[in-house]
Specification:
Layout lengths: L21 H14 L12 E4 L7 E2 L2 E7 L9 E5 L2 E2 L5 E2 L5 E7 L4 E9 L8 E9 L36 E7 L5 E3 L11 E3 L5 E3 L1 E9 L2 E8 L25 E5 L16 H4 L8 H5 L3 E5 L10 H19 L5 E6 L1 H12 L6 E5 L6 H19 L8 H8 L10 H4 L1 H6 L30 H4 L1 H4 L1 E2 L4 E2 L12 H5 L5 H10 L2 E2 L5 E2 L7 H9 L13 E6 L11 H14 L5 E6 L7 H18 L6 H7 L8 E3 L5 E3 L9 H5 L6 H4 L13 E2 L12 H10 L4 E2 L16 E5 L2 E4 L14
Parallel strand pairs: 2-9, 16-17, 16-18, 18-19, 19-24, 24-25, 25-26
Antiparallel strand pairs: 1-3, 3-7, 4-5, 4-8, 6-7, 8-9, 10-11, 10-14, 12-13, 14-15, 15-17, 20-21, 22-23, 26-27, 28-29, 30-31
Length: about 750
């Protein structure tokens, strides 16, 4: 018989499957995310097989956690489980009912495998189930080929020299650390418990020693670390084996996945050290807090966006590290993501494009994505160049520049387009932003090495954007044709008509190598369409899971993490889902010290428990919203620590909008939407009546000459702006997308270059 197994991922309606028991919650989530929707038990049915550690067609490393449900006629002793014809029955153990077998099945061959289950010595022995499992190498390339070169930084990460050739793969190792009563983190040798070990109380109220086991190695050519509170005298070992040791009271049964910011060109594994799994922190997040609460912590260097701004590789890394975690430690009740800036981008896009990997999001100082944000960031580079090279730069002091850029001034009179200038030049520039470990001779040079590694943002996403055959490089989505820079400033009387005309006449654009040119930039239409269809632009699809945004407010600090990016994300959620009720947002002053991270982890835990206890038939998205804790509100904290309600409405006259006003960026000042989701605008003719100023005949003629093909019509969707094509896409060649459960032969014609 055909296996009763689906590889469809968790969608909004599958959340109904969760039960109240923690084990049932975890199994239902894993079933929906990895092996098909969980179903009520029916012993009259035939065998059922599902994978728990990963989807059956994206297994890696040669092993997989499998669950087999037995029909009524089959006895445990009669069940025969085979992998490629080899008996692996002994690798599975029965639960207390004897009707469900689970275990870590090892020895998978690369490529396709066949797992079968049947009842021997029974008249029903013609009844069996079969599941195809596709196993990939531990170095990955499941979703897309990796960049080459790929510098392996295992030595700098304390994991020994990398292989002399081939993929970045090193041996797994384990280290132990403890925190003493003075707060220091120290290495632990042997199994003796130090007299000065500190204790911590987990989220479940258990008090345990603060002793951490850190597992380290390489997965998906990324350095990974898994940290968990454990007992060195009786450590976790083979938890899926009947004779194995399951995690002790230090693990609360939940997984915390940390994402780190930045936005770099990649071509490397990234690097860290073992203690980073415990101690690493930025201004408003760290890894010590979740460990203290009993969460297991997982991190990968390709989940640092500053290593490589490729969210497809990031998602693949999460999937593979999470698979490793489940196999070595057990099934988490839920996985909560947290990360700031580029770490927020990764969470959004992983949930958007690969739903089921994360169960809750904590985007800190968030951006919706990088591709659409790059549009106004590159605008900043053009405007900074214009202001610096104007006939009289003194005519454009910071205060007047801010009227065009939309950003406020810092105490030194700088607007934040200056803060963005490094990224504004790095992202479109093929020779910029590289880490020193990427050899110079491997990098692109327009004259001496045109086949070298290009560091542009679009080249980092070449798998999903594709290659422009005219240039041989990744398709460039950036477009500023028809954009009227400073439009709101003109209409508000902040700049003159002459300044508006000169600005737009000379703003210019960029060539394929990021050099300033006189003409505006025309985005690659296929690249733009794929940015939407392949999920590089976040339109809010699949983002109905619990989300807690938080930030310290830095709009007046020449800091790129401006508050209006949170508003952009909320606008996209409203457009797609009609609500933002699955979101809570917290804001504090730049120097605020509120422990938002701990608050968020506690709130997420309550939220997940409420959802799990909801056994109704309501769609999952409804459960998320109606089970949001009553105490979880949109709030801000003032400098004195007082808390105020913080409505999402920009025109609300309340305390929070006064303390923390929402500003803009160059595209918003040019008339663009708050959602910031239009890469290339549709255009309309220049009409004098569309302005709050009166142009002379000569001025109007000049304006029409500047915008000979029309100006942006922001009332319409963007050019080629289309919904996400599908989730769980892989890219076997640049620009060519296939859904992972439909095979390499299933594709859309518009994906072909």
């Amino acid at each position: 018989m055909a296996a009763r197994v689906s590889v469809a991922m968790l969608d909004d309606d599958q959340g109904v499957l969760m039960k109240t028991a923690p084990a049932a919650i975890a199994l239902a989530l894993a079933a929906a995310a990895f092996g098909g929707p969980a179903q009520a038990r029916d012993d009259s049915r035939d065998f059922e097989i599902r994978t728990l550690s990963s989807r059956p067609n994206t297994v890696s490393g040669g092993d997989v956690v499998v669950e087999v449900r037995l029909p009524r006629y089959a006895r445990r002793g009669d069940v025969l489980v085979r992998l490629n014809g080899r008996d692996v029955s002994a690798q599975l153990g029965a639960d207390s009912s004897g009707r469900t077998l689970t275990g870590l099945v090892t020895g998978l061959q690369l490529g396709k495998n066949r797992l079968t289950v049947s009842a021997r010595h029974h008249h029903h022995n013609q009844h069996y189930e079969s599941l195809e499992i596709v196993n990939y190498p531990i170095h990955g390339e499941i979703f897309a080929p990796h960049q080459r070169p790929w510098v392996c930084e295992s030595a700098a990460s304390g994991l020994g020299a990398p292989p002399a050739s081939g993929p970045c793969v090193v041996a797994t190792r384990y280290e132990w650390f403890y925190r003493n009563t003075s707060g220091a983190l120290l290495p632990l040798s042997g199994t003796a418990i130090p007299a000065d070990v500190a204790q911590t109380t987990t989220i479940d109220g258990r008090t345990v020693n603060y002793i951490v086991r850190v597992e380290s190695g390489t997965i998906n050519e990324s350095i990974y670390r898994i940290a968990i509170l454990d007992d060195p005298t009786d450590p976790i070992s083979n938890p899926w084996s009947p004779g194995g040791k399951k995690p002790g009271p230090g693990w609360n049964g939940k997984l915390f996945y940390h994402f780190v910011g930045g936005a770099g060109p990649g071509f490397r594994s990234g690097r860290n050290v073992a203690t980073n799994a415990i101690n690493i922190s930025d201004t408003i997040s760290n890894r010590d807090e979740p460990l203290r609460l009993g969460f297991a912590v997982a991190v990968g260097t390709r989940n640092t966006f500053g290593t490589g701004a490729d969210e497809v590789v990031s998602a693949e890394t999460v999937m593979m590290i999470k698979e490793r975690f489940i196999e070595q430690y057990g099934l988490p009740k839920y996985t909560v993501g947290l990360g700031s800036s580029g770490g927020a981008i990764q969470q959004h896009l992983i949930a958007h494009n690969y739903p089921g990997l994360l169960d809750a999001l904590t985007p800190v100082r968030n951006y919706p994505d990088v591709m659409s944000v790059a549009t106004d960031v590159i605008d900043c580079g053009l405007l900074n160049n214009y202001f610096a090279t104007a006939v009289n730069p003194a005519d454009w002091p910071g205060e007047r520049q801010s009227k065009v850029t939309g950003y406020p001034l810092d105490p030194l009179g700088r607007n934040n387009c200056l803060g963005w200038n490094t990224f504004a030049r790095d992202w479109p520039g093929p020779t910029n932003g590289f880490d020193a470990v990427v050899p110079l001779e491997a990098r692109y040079d327009p004259v001496t090495n045109r086949g070298g590694a290009r560091g542009t943002l679009q080249d980092g996403s070449v798998s999903s954007l594709g290659i422009n055959p005219a240039t041989g490089f990744a398709r460039q989505p950036y477009d500023n044709v028809g954009v009227q820079y400073g439009l709101a400033a003109l209409n508000n009387g902040d700049i003159t008509k002459a300044e508006f005309l000169d600005l737009n006449e000379k703003a210019g654009g960029l060539d394929i190598d990021g050099n300033f040119v006189a003409q505006r930039s025309e985005g690659d239409l296929k690249g733009i369409e794929r940015a939407y269809r392949h999920g590089r632009v976040n339109d809010g699809e699949n983002l109905t899971l619990p989300m807690i945004q938080y930030r310290n407010y830095v709009d007046f600090a020449n800091d790129i993490h401006s508050f209006h990016r949170s508003t952009a994300m909320l606008e996209r959620l409203r457009k797609k889902n009609g609500t933002t009720d699955n979101v809570a947002r917290w804001t504090m002053p730049q120097a605020g010290t509120v422990n938002f991270m701990r608050m968020a982890l506690l709130a997420h835990d309550e939220w997940q428990a409420n959802i799990a206890a909801d056994t109704s038939d309501a769609p999952y998205r409804i459960k998320v919203m109606r089970n949001k804790p009553a105490s979880l509100k949109n709030q801000c904290w003032d400098a004195a620590g007082a808390v105020h309600d913080h409505p999402f409405a920009l025109n609300d006259p309340g305390v929070c909008n006064t303390l923390f006003p929402v500003h803009a960026d160059p595209r918003i000042v040019a008339g663009g939407p708050r959602a910031g989701d239009i890469l290339k605008c549709q255009r309309k003719p220049v009409r004098a009546g569309d302005y709050q100023v009166t142009f002379t005949t000569a001025e109007l003629a000049r304006l029409k000459a500047i915008f000979s093909d029309g100006v942006c019509d922001w009332s319409k969707p963007g050019v080629k702006q289309r919904p996400l094509r599908d989730s769980w896409l892989a890219y076997p060649k640049p620009g060519h997308a296939v859904r992972l459960d439909r095979g390499a032969d299933h594709h859309d014609n518009d994906d072909d270059d």
